[in-house]
Amino acid sequence: MTRADIGDIPTQNPCAQCGTPIAQPDWIEPGEGRVSYLWTCHACNYRFEAIAIFDESAVEYPPLAA
Questions:
Q1: Domain spans in the chain, listed from the N-terminal domain onward
Q2: pLDDT tens-place values along the chain, 66 residues long
Q3: Which helix (H) or strand (E) holds 51?
Q4: I need a labelling partner for 23 at 20 to 30 A (CA). Which of 11, 17, 44, 59 fits?
């Protein structure tokens, strides 16, 4: 599981299914110009991904795949 220091980690994101706040993402995957978050709702067991896209790369990382 990735727990990289990539700045502000979102908290209390509402579940996309039932709206219950989720304390923190299960997985954080930084990439070039984006950060992906995997969320799991413990109230309804719904899992979903949210992606933050930036105009410029927020964090410098090597490519994920060659």
A1: 13-53
A2: 344 444 578 888 899 899 999 999 999 999 888 899 999 999 999 999 999 888 764 456 566 665
A3: strand 47-53
A4: 59
